[in-house]
Design goal:
heterodimer, A: alpha/beta, seven-stranded mixed beta sheet, five-stranded mixed beta sheet, 18 helices, globular, B: alpha+beta, 7 strands, 14% strand, elongated
């Protein structure tokens, strides 16, 4: 039996995990990263369009700063986000991007002088200032007031991940590849590491660590069509859930991206619309201005996805053997622009559709894309209930995105949360609080338990087919827990998923008997875990009787702050139970810098909370008084909702910004 | 009209071997799959695993041609399986793992280990003179055209196709391959990396580096990202010759 000791175990080798590892290493702690695949192949690489950071270098970003980024993020979240976390995030995003520039990301830069662009279907000329030449530029993305999304062509995630992994190699960070964490080792409310399975040899290894970080990304693959990589199966959330102690937050908050190609569901970046691309229906008609006259194609993602679905329901979709779709037209951007700034999109269109997007329209429809929910943590990334367990990036719910994430905020979150959480973990490791007391026989118990479960699957006869259960789960999620939801469908989904969960205890492998690399065995235990995660999503969606952000209930169309301004919290307290246990966590309005308001899309149907008005009056009063006294925006912000003291000291400084305080 | 009748029956022959099984030996196994509209090898292989043999090993991650996991020999040619449409292939398709990399089983190979070794050997990261970055300050400027040029080379996805398509590496296993030389070209271009031309010469100015290349250029033919490998290898050679004569 192999037991490996380290200070910080990081599960997941994408942007968030690698950033945690480099951060704790810099503080002098030992760390090991477990990764299903070589880190450079992680799903972070698929992020195309960009990273939000309020640098305000380009002409169209002028006047941008942390306050504007904050306000966009909170509105985008439909007031579900933790506002202190959002403040910490927008404050650190410029620092994170500058670090990445230092580590080698070839960010696209501002070029002085005139350039042509397409805005609202018209060619315009933008003049960049001489003094901004050579600084990091940005493009437009949905739901943002300013052009804030920094990019490297449309391979932003790829360049960031390569720079990050290269930095990790420079720092001699140990990465154990093709190792999958299948359970957490814990005792008396304290996490001590994880049991991992070597996907090449089948061997189980116990990693014992003072701090364990789950950075395994989202759970998109519980849906039959998703833009996510095939490894984004929610196994990180599942192993946290299976402790019975750690909690998951807002699992029902699922984002659908408006423009994935049909039928395979591969993403074409929001940059297509950000750079001026249009959505057209079967008649070639541009329909978005009819629904959203102000933001049009660049409304927030949840809004665009719903409007597209509505429009297709009116019979305006293009019929195909794979169901209805709409068109994304980027031909108006011109070949030169596409070949320079949207080249991944071009390659995807050529290889998977056999079309040239500079000449032809792209068939698209809304597709599962992002998991706002995840392992519920404090702002430090630590689980609220299981000490020593941390989580960050898409895997976590610390909660930056609330019920809808803005495009460009996800890769940005990976590196910002990784950078911050690595500091909090280091503080923990350096404190007496992190001292461990676990007997090796208890560690062995966890390994034996997992080995027993695997042996049982390998020995099972006359059992269930894992592929059948999984396909059914995926269909249920797609059909009944999708963009528009209702009580009847959701109840059916929950009932059937509960049944699938029971059946998943009897999976057999039909002859695939290898204890080593055995894809059938992997599929079996992952399917068991995925069904549990799917249940938390469907059950959370059923209970939430309101519409907020990406969670849209046809039977409850209003956002109901009076009753539902709260996070859904799930645990699986007893492994013999067939359903998770739910509770709720209030989101207190009394401390908000930006009390709940209207997002500005469609009609305002909000059922307001009585505290909202009171808090808004306070905020207005304080702001007015301090403005009259001549205080600056930082001082006013601090009076409304102080957050700086929560940040690590080295990241508290004011961001230098072109044209503001340089 | 019944379109189903028109679908081709694909015969997919796969080179199979499980190195963990002492009784196994490398052998070809053929599976029959009905072609569907827009089918890729990603779809076809998953169908085989789901309906014919659930022990079949292969690697896919992004299935969008972005991550470089699924490189294999398709009818003898290294390429990314996920973005290979079956309609572009004959009815009889032969699949084999990429040569030169450690075999995990069937079509699954350990490219990660090889690439990590390469990156450590070539130190493919930014070498700075100053160690502390002030994160609050404006970023260092860079010429927009230069940033684009670096990104052009930064697009390599470490899929290993160029290594499998390289004649030199067959004879000289320590050759860094086009993937390695492209990385050196990328860092040499990058003003943030403070290594001198002499430093690069010490890393790749020999037979296992830029002077080992026999200029067969299989690498450029098979690179799925169309990286300018030929011109970069030529450029590095000229630069290295100049440096060696200093």
């Amino acid at each position: 039996m192999q037991v490996i000791y380290t200070d910080v175990l990081v599960i997941g080798g994408g942007l968030a995990g690698l950033r945690v590892a480099t951060g704790v290493k810099e503080r002098g702690h030992d760390t090991i990263v477990l990764s299903l695949v070589p880190p450079k192949r992680s799903h972070s690489a698929a992020a195309q369009g960009g990273m939000q950071a309020s640098l305000a270098n380009s002409k169209m970003g002028e006047g941008d700063n942390e306050d504007v980024h904050f306000s966009d993020t909170i509105k985008g979240s439909d007031w579900g986000a933790d506002q202190e976390v959002a403040r910490m995030f927008v404050h650190c995003a410029p620092k994170a991007i500058r670090q990445l520039a230092h580590w080698g990301v070839p960010w696209s830069r501002v070029h002085r002088g005139d350039r042509s662009a397409v805005i609202n279907a018209k060619k315009v000329t933008i003049s960049e200032k001489d003094e901004a030449h050579g600084l990091i530029t940005a493009r437009d993305f949905g739901g943002t007031k300013k052009w804030r999304t920094c990019y490297t062509s449309d391979g932003t995630g790829h360049s960031m991940l390569y720079a990050m992994d290269n930095k990790a190699q420079q720092d001699n960070i140990e990465v154990h590849e093709r190792l999958e964490a299948i359970s957490l080792i814990h005792e008396n409310g304290r996490c001590f590491g994880a049991v991992a399975r070597n996907l090449m040899s089948g061997e189980l290894v116990a990693y014992v660590a003072k701090a364990t970080t789950i950075a395994t990304g989202g759970y998109g693959r519980i849906y039959s069509v998703s833009t996510n990589a095939v490894i984004c199966q929610g196994i990180g959330q599942a192993i946290a859930l299976e402790t019975g102690v750690a909690t998951l937050g807002n699992m029902e908050a699922i984002q659908f991206h408006p423009t994935a190609i049909v039928p395979v569901g591969i993403l074409t970046t929001e940059g297509c619309r950000g750079d001026g691309g249009l959505l057209l229906d079967k008649d070639g008609y541009r329909f978005m201005p009819d629904y959203e006259p102000d933001k049009k194609e660049l409304a927030s993602r949840d809004v665009v996805s719903r409007r597209m679905t509505e429009h297709m329901r009116k019979g305006k979709g293009v019929k195909s053997r794979y169901g209805d779709h709409l068109w994304l037209d980027i031909t108006i951007l011109g070949r030169e622009h596409i070949e320079k700034n949207l080249r991944e999109v071009k390659e995807i269109c050529e290889n998977f559709l056999g079309i040239d997007p500079a000449e032809e329209w792209i068939p698209v429809r809304p597709t599962q894309h992002y998991s706002m929910g995840g392992i519920r943590t404090k702002y430090t990334g630590e689980s609220q209930t299981l000490k020593g367990l941390y989580s960050c990036g898409e895997a976590a719910c610390w909660d930056l995105h609330g019920f809808n994430r803005l495009g460009g905020n996800s890769v940005s979150e990976t590196v910002v949360s990784g950078m911050l959480v690595s500091e909090y973990i280091s503080d923990f490791i350096e404190s007496k609080d992190s001292e461990m007391d676990i007997h090796t026989s208890n560690v062995e118990k966890f390994i034996h338990k997992e080995q027993k479960k695997l042996n049982a699957i390998l020995a099972k006869k006359n059992g269930e087919n894992a592929f059948e259960l999984r396909r059914r789960m995926e269909e249920i999620m797609m059909e009944k827990v999708g963009i528009f939801r209702n009580g009847t469908d959701l109840q059916e989904a929950v009932d059937e998923l509960e049944e699938l969960h029971k059946r998943s205890k009897n999976i057999e492998l039909f002859g695939a008997s290898s204890h080593a690399a055995n894809p059938a065995l992997v599929n079996a235990y992952r399917t068991q875990k995925m069904i549990k995660v799917a249940l938390t999503v469907a059950y959370g969606a059923l209970l939430r009787e309101e519409s907020r952000g990406a969670h849209s209930r046809e039977d409850f169309p209003k956002r109901d702050d009076a009753n539902w301004l709260k996070r859904t919290i799930m645990t699986w307290s007893d492994e013999n139970k067939s359903m998770p246990t739910v509770s709720y966590e209030n989101i207190p309005i009394e401390h908000m810098e930006m009390p709940p308001g209207f997002r500005g899309y469609g009609k305002d149907l909000t059922e307001h909370h009585p505290s909202t008005k009171i808090r808004q009056q306070q905020v207005d009063k304080i702001t007015k008084e301090l403005e009259e006294k001549g205080l600056n925006r930082f001082e006013i912000q601090n009076a409304l909702m102080p957050y700086l003291d929560k940040l690590p000291k080295k990241y508290r400084g004011i961001n230098e910004r072109f044209g503001e305080n340089t | 009209m019944n379109t189903e009748e028109k679908n081709r029956l694909l015969k997919i022959s796969i080179l199979r071997f499980d190195p963990h099984d002492p009784d196994d030996f490398p052998h070809m196994e053929t599976f029959e799959v009905e072609e569907a509209d827009g089918m890729t090898l990603f779809v076809a292989l998953n169908e085989i695993r789901e309906h014919h043999d659930n022990s079949l090993k292969f690697d896919f991650v992004c299935r969008a041609g972005i991550c470089g996991s699924c490189s294999m020999l398709v009818n003898g040619r290294p390429t990314l399986a996920c973005r290979t449409l079956t309609k572009k292939l004959d009815n009889n398709i032969t699949l084999a793992p990429l040569p030169l990399f450690e075999l995990i089983g069937d079509l699954s190979i350990y490219t990660g280990k090889w690439m990590r070794g390469l990156n450590e050997r070539l130190e493919t990261w930014i070498h700075e003179k100053e160690d502390e970055l002030e994160v609050d300050k404006l970023e260092e400027r860079m010429e927009p055209a230069l940033a684009d040029e670096i990104y052009e080379l930064d697009r390599c996805i470490e899929c290993g196709c160029c290594v499998a398509g390289c004649g030199t590496i067959q004879m000289k296993p320590d050759f860094v391959g086009a993937v390695g030389l492209n990385k050196i070209a990328r860092y040499q271009l990058d003003p943030r990396d403070k290594r001198s031309d002499e430093d690069y010469y010490n890393i790749v100015g020999d037979e296992s580096g830029v002077f080992g290349c026999m200029t067969l250029l299989g690498c450029e033919d098979v690179c799925p990202k169309d990286l300018p490998l030929q011109s970069k290898i030529a450029y590095l050679r000229r630069m290295m010759v100049k440096t060696s004569m200093k």
